[in-house]
Each structure stands twice: as structure tokens, then as C-alpha cells.
Amino acid sequence: MSVSKAKKPMTLESLLPKIVLAPTTAVMLVCMYGFMIWTGALSFTKSRMLPQWDFVGFDQYAKLFANPRWDVALNNLVVFGVLFIAVSLLLGLFLAILLDQKIRLEGTLRTIYLYPMAVSFVVTGTAWKWILNPGLGLEKLVRDLGFENFEFRWLVEQDMAIYTIVIAAVWQSSGFVMAMFLAGLRGVDDSLIKAAEIDGASKMKAYWYVILPILRPVFFSAIVILSHIAIKSFDLVQALTGGGPGYASDLPANFMYTYAFNRAQMGVGASSAMIMLMGVLAIIVPYLYSELRGGKNGR
Amino acid sequence: MIKRTLAACVAAATLSTAAQAADVEVLHYWTSGGEAKSVAYLKEKLTEAGVGWKDFAVAGGGGENAMTVLKSRAVSGNPPTAAQIKGPSIQEWGELGFLSDIDSVAKANNWDALLPGVVSDVMKHDGKYVAAPVNVHRVNWLWANPELFQKAGATIPTTWDDFLVQAKKIQDAGYIALAHGGQAWQDATVFEAVVLGVGGPEYYQKAFVELDSDALNSATTEEVFRVFGEIRGLVDENSPGRDWNVATSMVINGEAAMQIMGDWAKGEFTVAGKTPGVDYACVAAPGTSGSFTFNVDSFAFFAQSDADAQKAQQEMAKQILGQDFQKVFNLNKGSIPARLGMARDEFDSCAHASMDAFVSSSQTGGLVPSFAHGMAVPEAVSGAIYDTATNFFNSDQSAADGKAQLIASIQAAM
Amino acid sequence: MVANRSFNLGRLFIYGCLFAFALFYLAPLYVMLTTSFKDIEEIRSGNLLALPQDPTLYAWIKAWSSACTGSECQGLAPFFMNSVKVVVPAVILSTVIGALNGYVLSKWRFRGSDLMFGMLLFGCFIPFQVILLPMARLLAELGLANTVTGLVLVHVIYGVAFTTLFFRNFYVSVPTELVKAAQLDGASFFQIFRHIFLPVSLPIFTVTIIWQFTQIWNDFLFGVVYSGPGTQPITVALNNLVNTSMGGKEYNVDMAAAVIAALPTLLVYIFAGKYFVRGLTAGAVKG
Predict the structure, then answer these.
(1) Hey, of A35, A46, A48, A49, which one would you mutate to test binding to chain B, going by the most B CBs within 10 A of its CB?
(2) Fewer CB within 10 Å, N or C, chain B?
(3) ∠ CA B176-A243-C242 to the nearest 5 degrees?
(4) Where are the alpha helices (DSSP H) in B20-159?
(5) Which residue of A has its CA nearest to B412?
(6) Chains A and C: how many Cβ contacts under 8 Å?
(7) Looking at the domain assignment, is residue C66 inside a domain?
(8) Which CATH code fits B138-294+360-413?
(9) Which residue of B has its CA nearest to C73?
(10) Residue span of the structural domain in which C18 resides
(11) How many angstroms away from the CA of C109 is the closest CA of chain A?
């Protein structure tokens, strides 16, 4: 329990925690929540190229939801978000468990899995574009090896392009998830596994029933960070597909940026941002709430 | 002796700082090859005239990132001296009161006589010059590889119907008919050529510049989408996301027979050591030989409170319209000078054709602004056209649905 | 005997998987590196995955010192220092502030401090594109528009949420009894931080600094919007260099430039990666 609850007279010393936190709180209220409110207000105006304060009610929201491109972007976010988070978690966990089996070269392998996080997608976008391009990359390569009918052309197919974004995103973030899980596994007492094994459980079962529950907080952190990345994914699309073919691989962040800054439809852009925030609110906040509460009680 | 030299030095130094009183800060998105060199040349000219140059280059997506920067700077009350903006956007910035009046320079240098009417109209807000044009691009070009046409027994098409026939022949001979990069702006560039070729300049002007709903609702629009839909099958499957210059190199290498692209494509042929009229043909896009879709790059000037900054700004405006800069810039970029009456002997045959078409089309009404390059309609509307065209081209939407979608999205953007 | 064989098969499976995924992770870097050493002719005609036949440093030299990034053609070199000038103060400030915040939020909780932490976590989700314009306005009010200080400030503001999260989760695992005991001995707020928390904080400082360094070094959006002429960070220069709109795209130079721009963060991960995982182990991952 918190130390400061001890009864003490009001002194400068006792106010220090609040003083330390005050600047961050103030800045957060202005630069996060203030700007959110500003954007919310903007979404009710008819702002075009720059902010203007003529209010038009929900017109911009009506325009937004009548826009077929926004539909595509929203659907893509669901597909992308779910797949990206799920695959990154599974792959990260899988690699972490494998690496935890007293592997030679562990350091090297870990660095290899981790480095994509260090590199911005502005940098790796071109390389990925080449690899995924059927005329240049993987498809051509395998065909050159003699498999004439090999097909891998998601990048240029309207229905599949979003999955290439998932691949690249998983590539970039799963190493970090791996590191988090590996750290979590290292924190688990070895004797727990041994004990489970002595009880006659297979290694698989030991992990499933003993270790994974312990890693619950890691799942929490990883999900928060991954969903944060998913919502904000922007560079990926920009660099890999440019939203194409057509606008089939657009994500809400790209939609918002385009409409607010390049289409002189700032009102529509602002309303799309508000919808995104509300989506986050609906999904993340209950999760944060339950996890933070649960964590507190457990401690 | 030493004292005197020192004094001279100090005098020289103070003189030059007096002349260097102000800088121009220029926001632009020309960062590569010929364009970067051209900007560097303007910088040199200004330095000679005693004006310093602060470069603020932001490339990417045809100026998308640069516009984001410009908007942030405008909101913070700290806009650059000049920014690369074009078309109706100039009017929008003027409307918001951000631009500065450079009419005195224009009057002194007689811009009204130097510039064609369609160009000077774009540069003015409320009847006063607020921007200076650097070039005129013609967008409706068809670039062809004559050797491939010969091999396939095809002829270079002059109408869209003929285009579809000839393209089939080329495909049957085992080549790609149309080199194309599937990015929204390139889809829109081809779409624009189809609109102009199928509908003619009058329809183009009514439907895609004035956004007249009768014209948009006419049967011509559906015919445009029908032809545009036919083209889907004439490009190779790997086109989505391809850069335009990669598509051009497919024509150069003999993988593909044609490309529809603005005159900047010429630079790629030149770099590859090809001669116009021999190794490659530059002709008007099908059905548009009497017409000219223009795309004018320009610098708009932002209001400055400081008198010295204003002076520097005016010097920049003057230099942009100077013969030297117009020549060097356009030789580098493949376009033609924005000002009339320049010596044309250093330009090549494609540029000559462009200059002739520019003059002749301005008399016949065939001179129209390019909507695919932000010259015809406000950003919101051209964005709506982009979305419709690129989505149509990459799906199997019917012509009727394409038309309905176009009308709906233009209305939503107004 | 049977057990031994299955053991070997198991090991084989583990190593097989690990190496297969290593290939997946390495592929883009491999493509970038090999391309950067090829000449343009070989890139056009050759195989994407082939090793360069005739390795050349041309692209690297050009990317570093003579490629055009605007009207200047001096390569990435001048922009490297611009990035350093932003990254160093921004990382230090956001880390220090995060450490103090985390200390308070874990051990000096008061009414509303948990709410504040929750709000900070949610606040992270605000898409950065949204804040561009109001932030520009705010910086102008402060007189910091398009200055290095302004850019540093923006990075600190939006980095603190993460650094606070890291430190808070780490410090939660420090036994509260220690703090109470120290308090009874008359130690002050800062003394406790200095003598009890700082000495155990090395792992979490490592994690936070690596994280912040990577984020800020790789940032493009803030860098392009809030920098001024002459202070643009390296990512903006890279973007200008790579985004060729006309005339002979030099993929080898693009790739070399990309690797150069990524080099500092790559080196940090290669040499400090070990501490990164250790730091995470030491508690950063606890919810």
C-alpha cells in the first residue's frame, strides 16, 4: 500500500509527490486531452483546408460514413488489428519458448529477431515492396527455381493486399514481443517447470498450465503496446502499398491524414479521428480498467 | 596600407550584408535529379542578386508531406516566404488571406503580356498576382516504342477505339500493351486522358472543371468509364504500386508498347540515351491531338511583415519569370516555359510539339486544366475523382456503377 | 535410446524453427545490404537475392556525402548531427521525468494518481496526426515554432507517457517496506529515490533509453513538421533522398542511405540488446 497514507502534517515534503507529477499532468491535460477536445470540436465544423469554426452539427460524420473508402479503412483495421496482434503474440511467445531451451547462439538469434524494431519503416518499406512484388521478389525467385506455377501475389491483389501489411507489421513488432516473453520466462522460477515435470506433466502441459498463467502481465503489456501500434499504423501502408491497389489497403490513420491534410476536408479528417478514439475507448479502456484493478488486488 | 585594406574589407563586408539583408525561405518538394538542379539554379540566381536562400525541401507523394508542413506553419503564424503550390489551391490560400501581393513586380516586368491568359489567371487572386509560374507541363502524352509496334504489326492509335484494337494486337504478339503504375495519381492520369479523348474538350471543361451535373450525368460519362474499364485488361498484373518511371523504363526496354504520362516522362528516355522520333514516339494521347491538358508548377508567396523580406520575395518572383531560369528549368524538367516568346532552338522536338499545341489549342478551346494534377478543381474534389478512378480501375465495377460513384463522391466533396 | 532420439529430433525441430524465422527476419536487411553494394546495372538485370558480383562503395559514398536532398546535394552527413541534437536532450529529459513519475505512481500514490496513470495510458492512443496543428499553434505561442527546442519539447511530451509506464511497472516490484523503513529513518522523498531506487534502476534505464532513442531517431512526422530550415532531422533527409519523382532512380543509393540512417539504432540494438532483454526481465514487463 502507498506510503504517503501515513498520517503526517502537510509539509512541502508531503506535497512533493504531487509537485513532481504536476507538470506531466498539466501537459497531459493540455497536449493529449485538450487536443482531443479540440479535434472533437473541429469535427463539428465545416473546416476545409485549415480550421474554421463554423459549426455544422454531425454533417461531417454523415459524410464520413457515406464514404466507401472509410468503410474499407475500418474493415481493414479490424482485419489488420486482430491478425497483427494475434500473430505477433503467438509468434513472439513461440520464439521466446524455443529460445528459452538453452539454445546456443541465443544472443545472436535474439538480436536478429529484435532488430526490426530498431529500424523505421521508411527504411525497410522499399525492401519489403521488392520482396513481396510478384515480378521482382519471392514469386519470381521460386519460379526461377523451377516451380512455374508458384503464386505469391498478395501485394497486387485487391482482396489480399491488407495481409501483406500484416506480414510486414508482424515482422517489425513480433521480435519485441518475443523479448518481452523471454524476459517473462526468465523471471519464472525454473523449479516450477521441474516440479510440474516431476508430477508427470509433459513439457507442453507444464507451459500451458503453469507458465502461461504466470505470464499474464506480459500478455497485458504486449497487448497494450501492440494495439497501440495497430491503431497508429501509418508508415507501413504509406511505404508498402500506398493504400493500393485502389484504396484497398487503406487504414484509418492514413484516411485521416489524407483527408485532413491533402484533401482540404479537415472536418471529415477530424471526425474520422474521433471515431478512431472512440473505438479505442470502447476496446482498450475496459481492458485497462480490469487489468489495473486485477493487478492491484493481486499485489 | 594594411589599415586601408582592412577598411576596404569592412566596407565590402557591410555592403554585402546590406545587400544580404533578407533571405527567402522556400518550401518545395523538388529533391531529385533534374528538379533539384533546377532549384539549385534559382538559388544561384538569387544569391547573385544578393538574396540568401533557406531551403526547406520535403519530398513525397506529389507534395503531400510538404502541404502538411505548410499548413502547420501557416497555423503557427510562421509561413515560409514562398511555397510550391499550384492550381486552385492558390485561390484557397488567397481566400484565407495568407498570400502577399507581388503585383508591383508583375507590372514592372509586364507579366500580363508575357504569360498566356490561362496561366496568369491561376497566378492571380482578386486580380493581383500572388504566385509565379515556373513551367507548363502537357499531361496528355502517349509514349510509344515504335519497334514493338512494328513487330506486332500495329499502328500508333489516334482514337480510343483504335487504341483498344491496336493494344490487342500488341498483346497477341506477346508484349504488354500499356505500361502503367497502379498508383492513384497514375490511374487518374490515364482516366483524364480517356475523359478528354472520348468526351472532347467541351465535355471535359463542363464535367470535370465546372462540375456541371448535366454533363456528369450524361451518357458520355458512362462511355468514358466503359473505355477506362477496357484498359484494365491491357496492363500487366504486377502494375499496382509501381512507380511511373519504372513503367517508362518498360517502354524503353521493349517490354511494353505504350505509356500515358505527362511530358516529364521524356527525361527517362533522355537519360537512357534515346532520341525522340527515332527510338521513341511522343504523340498526343488517343483522341486528344488538338487538345492540351496543362499542369503548371508555381511558387506562391506568403505575406511577410518585414520590409526586407518583402524585397527578397519580389526579387525571387522576378527571377522566376526571367528568361535564364525559365530556359534552364524547363530543359531539365521536360516541360515548356511558362512565359511566351522564348527562343526555342535548345528544346527538342517533343517540346516543340508541346509549344505548338499550347498555342493552337488556346485558340480552339482545347486548352484545359489537368484535374489529375490539381489544376482544375479544389483538392477535395480532385481527391474524390482520384478515389473513384483508382477504385474503379482496380475492381470489376461496371461502367454504370463507376459513373454513379463518381457523381456521389464529387457531391460529397463539394 | 528412444528418449535420446526423440530428444535429438526435438532439438532439431527447435533449431530448425529458430533458423527459419531468423531468415524471415533477416531477409529485408539482406536485400538492402546487397543492393547497396551493387551498381545500378546489376540491380536492373540481376536477381534480387544474388550477392553483388562486383561490390562497390559508390552508393555509400554518394548517400553520405553527395546525394541531393533538396537544392543542396551534400548527402545525409549534415543531417546526422541535426538528429543527434534533437535525440540526446529529448531522450535524457523524457527518461528522467519518466523515472520520477514512475517513482511517485508506484510508491507515493495519492487520491487520483491511479486515474492519472490510466489517463496517461489512454492518452498514448491519440493518433499523432491529430495533434499536428494544435501543437504547431501552441509552439508558436511559446515562441518555439520551428526551433530545435520546440521539437525536443514535442518529443518529450509524447515520450513521457511511455517512459512513465516503464518506470512505474519497474518500481512497483521494489518492496514498499524498504521505503517505509527509510522514511522512519527520516529519509526524504528525493533521498529515498536517490539511495534506494536509483541504484537498482540500471536495467530499466537501459530499456527506456533504448526505446526512446529508437522512437525519436526514427520519427519522421514531428521532425518534418516542427523543424526549421537547416535543422531537419535525418529521417526527413532520407525521405527527400528516396522519394525521387523523376529521373533515374538509384536504388543502391536509396538502400545505402536507408542503412546509414538506421545505423545508430541498429548498433544500439546489436550492442545493447542483451541489456534490453535483461532490463525487461528485471520487471519492465510486469503489468
Answers:
(1) A49
(2) N
(3) 80
(4) 33-48, 64-75, 88-95, 103-108, 111-114, 117-123, 146-152
(5) A63
(6) 261
(7) no
(8) 3.40.190.10
(9) B36
(10) 2-56
(11) 5
Give me the total of CB pairs closer than 8 Å, taking one residue from chain A and one from chain B.
101
Map out the domains of chain A as residue ranges: 1-42, 60-298
What is d(CA C244, CA B31) in angstroms, rounded to the nearest whole number? 7
Q: Are residues C140 and C45 in the same domain?
A: no
**Is the domain of C49 the same as that of C125?**
no
Q: What is the model's pTM? A: 0.90
Q: Which of A201-215, A221-235, B296-310, C120-134 has the lowest mean pLDDT?
A: A201-215
Query: Nearest-CA neighbor of C248 among B253, B59, B246, B274?
Result: B246
CB contact under 8 A, B31 and C68: yes
Per-residue DSSP letters for C41-82?
A: HHHHHS-TTSPPSS--SHHHHHHHHT--SSS----SHHHHHH
Whether residue B68 and residue C246 make contact (CB cut-off 8 A), yes or no, is: no
Instruction: Give me the mean pLDDT over the B64-69 stretch.
Output: 90
Same domain, C186 and C237: yes
Where is mean pLDDT largest: A6-20, A179-193, B248-262, C162-176? B248-262
Q: Are residues C114 and C32 in the same domain?
A: no
**C156 and C31 part of one domain:** no
Do B138-294+360-413 and B23-136+295-350 have the same topology in CATH?
Answer: yes
Is the same domain home to C266 and C214? yes
Average pLDDT over residues A188-197: 74
Share of chain A above pLDDT 70, in %: 93
Per-residue model confidence (pLDDT) at position A291: 67
Query: From the list C32, C101, C282, which residue is nearest A127 (CB)?
Result: C32
Residue holding cell 472520348?
B198
Predicted pLDDT at C247: 58
Q: Give residue B7's pLDDT band: very low, low, confident or very high (50, 70, 90).
A: very low
For the residues C244-261, what does the mean pLDDT come to?
80
**In CATH, which superfamily holds the domain spanning B23-136+295-350?**
Periplasmic binding protein-like II (3.40.190.10)
Whether residue C140 is contained in a domain is answered as yes
CA distance C195 to A183: 26
CB-hemisphere CA count at 13 Å for C150? 24
Which residues in chain A are closer than 8 Å to C158, comparing Cβ atoms?
Answer: 31
Residues of chain B above pLDDT 70, percent: 94
Mean of the per-residue pLDDT values of chain C: 87
- Residue B5, judged by CB atoms within 10 A of its CB (0-12, 13-18, 19+), counts as exposed
In CATH terms, the fold of domain A60-298 is: MetI-like fold (1.10.3720)
Asked, for residue C61, whether it belongs to a domain, the answer is no
What is the domain partition of chain B in residue ranges?
A: 23-136+295-350, 138-294+360-413
How would you classify the pairing of strands B256-260 and B141-144? antiparallel
